[in-house]
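This section describes the prediction task in plain terms. A model, or a person checking by hand, is given the sequence of a single protein chain and must write out its three-dimensional structure as a string of tokens. No templates, partner chains or ligands are provided. The sample shown here is typical of the held-out split.
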Amino acid sequence: MTTASVNPSRRSYAPLARENRQKVLKHLEQAGITSGVLYLTGMKTEERKWTDCEVPFRQESNFFYLTGVTEPDCHLVIDVASQDAHVFIPKFSEDHALWMGPPPTETFIKERYGVQHCDVVDNIVKTLESLKASKVHILEQEKDLAAIGAFKDKIDSSALSTAVTEARMIKSKGEIELMRRAAKISGDAHIALMKAAKPGKDTERQLQALFEYECFRNDGRYQAYTPIVASGRNGSVLHYIDNTDPIAQDKRDLLLVDAGCEYECYAADITRTFPIGGKFEGDWKTTYEIVLSMQNAVLAAIKPGVEWEDMHKLANRVAAEGLLKAGLIKGDLDTLIANHIPALFFPHGLGHSIGLDVHDVGGYPKGVPRLTDPGLKYLRMRRTLKPGMAVTVEPGIYFVDAILDKALADSNVTQYLDVEVVKRFRKTVGGVRIEDDVVVTETGVDNLTGWVPKEVADIEKVMSA
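The expected answer:
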């Protein structure tokens, strides 16, 4: 069962939340909003259907960003003019302490989260009346408005979502340190899997359990997403989460692990691909080295002012060069790219924004359309990079049955393929992805996860220890 009680040892997010509120209000001021109130609801206590078993609670990200509050069933009102924050908590029943422990008091909430006011949810309308709220600014997706009564007639959803999104896009030093901690916990867990993996030993599920155990015992209680632990050909499924197969018997086969925990609600997202037997060989090594070259080229090119889609195009070009050298594709480099041949093997977007959510907000500002070319159409972000933005860099090369079946049946495509070589790689190599979490700096990147082994020699050294 989840509990509403606060762990007193938990790190205080209050200073960051206060800074975040000021950032959001600054964005609203720039949009001409200097009065009214902001209203957000936190996550509610949820139970599985037809039971009294509670779903593990995790605070809604925007609410956490502005409050740091980790209790369920809370509401937030911010007076724009005074910048005062009002947190509203449930009116707890008399027997709450029996089942869940002592509930948080209004005094505790104010002290713990650094807000000026705390009251029970029943008094939200009274507070809005006292503030003489002319407008109630809400997020575009906010649906739970029952608590604000007649003030629903004063709703404005035109500006708050953009203000929060733009604030969240640029990470503060404090946020980056929380992300660095999530990265450290997750990176250590990846190394534990490199050391544990052996041909034919254990299952994908057992290695997933080891990853989650390593995170949990180091304060990464929650996973940022369902871990992907894909052995052999399973690596060709981009979001493979079954994790039920035995680890491959062939020592040359690869294990793709895409997994990361949360720390204080901030996500890590790391992918490493390594040989089950501890040594890269043959086509598996060739594929891996293409992906590593793709990622290294992008990491060297990222800096303020570059377009994210251009980083994808750079990775795509390096992929084409590697696939040509390996003999998988043939022809003129620019012609291959123009005909989207590399996208047969690199079919997804380069990466995405990361922060309080693993696929963080702000990928597409209002008015920015999605691209339609293969590969590019799956980009989760189209932005000009700025200092403080946090993104993942996760190129990959895959041999996906559904894509290759279609390609091999099309003579317009096969003219650019060495069909026999493609079939050879496809038979054994599932897929390779290498992913790091980076923060854009004034001159390049701060790679939060670059220390996790990914060079061929470094992975082989860890696995041989």
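For orientation: Residues 7 and 70 are 10 Å apart (CA to CA).
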